[in-house]
Amino acid sequence: MLYLLLQALHAILQVKRGSMEQATSQNTSEQEVYVAGLRLSDYWRMARWPVAAATLVNAALLAAQQPWPYLWGINVLSFLGLAYWLQLKKRLTFGSASAMGIVAGLSLGFFVAIFRLVIERHAYLFFNLITEPLLTAAGGFLFSTLLYSLLHRKPKKPATDVKMRKEVKTNERTNDQE
What we know:
The chain has helices at 2-12, 20-25, 40-63, 68-89, 94-120, 128-151, 161-177, and strands at residues 15-17, 33-35, 38-39. With 178 residues, the chain is mainly alpha-helical.
């Protein structure tokens, strides 16, 4: 698990920025940030509808005062669904799938924190604007990388009869020589 985390962080942190010459030639001061081969705006474009749907369901559950396991169940289902759909349609790499989970988690957590602040109206929920996006980003990262690793696991090929016979014969010969 730690290996997956380190591999994903390495893939995500390979950030490429557009050159200053391109930015000045286009008369814009903004640079496009690339994370794992895609622009940040591409991640948001791919995640906006699943995040919007999950946000609306979470807002309805918050208004109905449902407990937090229901909310996290919706979040997990949305992360897994988004990751599965993107694997089928877009063929993302490990780093871009991890970054997608983080972007979806940050945005979903922020919108849910705003709804919770508006609906419940407690002063301490102001701090939830920071913690909720970070926790859901961690959940999005975890579930999207786990699903990616499960979908891209290479199955072990079973040994054929010929190979097994050769291995058994060589093992018998070495045992006889000893």
